[in-house]
Amino acid sequence: MNAQRLHALSLERQRQVDAVLDRFFSLAKNRAASFGAEYVKLWETLESNTVGGKRFRPRMVMAAYEALGGTDSEAAAYVGAAFELLHTALIVHDDVIDRDFSRRGIPNVSGSYRDIATTAGIPIPTAEHRGMSAAVIAGDLALFNAYRLIDRSGVADGTRSRLLEIMDDALFASAAGELIDVDFSITTKMPKVQDVLAMERLKTAVYSFECPLQAGAVLAGADESIVEVLGAFGREIGVAYQIVDDLLGVFGVETETGKTTIGDLREGKRTVLIAHATTTPQWAGIRHLVGKPDLSLDEATVVRAALEVSGSRAFTEALARVHAGRALTSLERPVLPERLRVELTPVADDVLSRVK
Asked: Are residues 152 and 252 in the same domain?
């Protein structure tokens, strides 16, 4: 299957998932109307936070499903949409935890409701509290309805129960990873590289790659051995993806990624990049800058230079390649059909191309 065909498939899958989400939000807003305009506004704000994403999770569900012979694209789209809504719930709550009021340069749920309050003349502390409160409610709604979308997929009871177990595994692991990340943020002791990797696997890789791929396989009625291999691939490629994402948070091009390259440094975010840097002689010269809330652009340049000289950037890029390589190796297992290898090999290429 050539690249053009794969791209066309990806666009069609995204269209199907978007159609499911459009129907879901339309029904929710109609239902909310009987509770008043403010409740409709909350659903509209939540909906806006699902627009424009990469749709990695639905792509994983549908790629595995169709490559394993699945033909009910509507059911697959519902399961894919469920994982996308789970992603929305987790990032809405993550922004509350991090006290972030924007995402990718625009107000998130917290920011939207904070801005409404400040426009009405409400003092900043109270406005911010209102914003975070609304985000907690919106995240709760998204989280609950992620499960409901699986219920509405129309699949047989046994398959639905297995899918719900996978969804539960995804949420359970992500909550554990989030808790570890919170603990990292409030301690002065820097975690080791392997500790950061464990956190990122739990917080992101499980629900973004492992479980969506496994859900697609279960939906297709695949053998458990295939489900296991897809979990292994998803685990490794998910970790590689997060490593690359953290690299782009410091060395990326903002106009390409839509992500600031100074925010993670100001936050002092515990990443593989920073964890490795703490083991090098250059750390002494930048430790007072990493986590500085008002870090200037010039100071950020100093930090980046130190991360280059220390070898931390090179180490982190190499580690991403190692995990992507492990993911590709798992695809060599003879239990996997060739079409599935063809579908998933470009995923690893896409992850690594982000740092080239």
From this structure: no
Residue 324's domain comprises: 234-356
Is the pTM for the entire model greater than 0.70? yes
Q: Which of 156, 174, 199 is the last residue of a domain?
A: 156
Query: Is the distance from CB of 165 to CB of 215 less than 8 angstroms?
Result: no
Give residue-wise pLDDT tens across range 219-235: 999 999 999 999 999 99
Digit-coded pLDDT (tens) for 147-170: 999 999 999 999 999 999 999 999
Buried (b) or exposed (e) across 112-133, using 16+ Cβ within 10 A? bbbebbbeeeeeeeebbbbbbe
Closest CA to 47 of 129, 112, 94, 124: 112
CA–CA dist 234, 239 (Å, integer):
8
- Do 238 and 121 belong to one domain? no
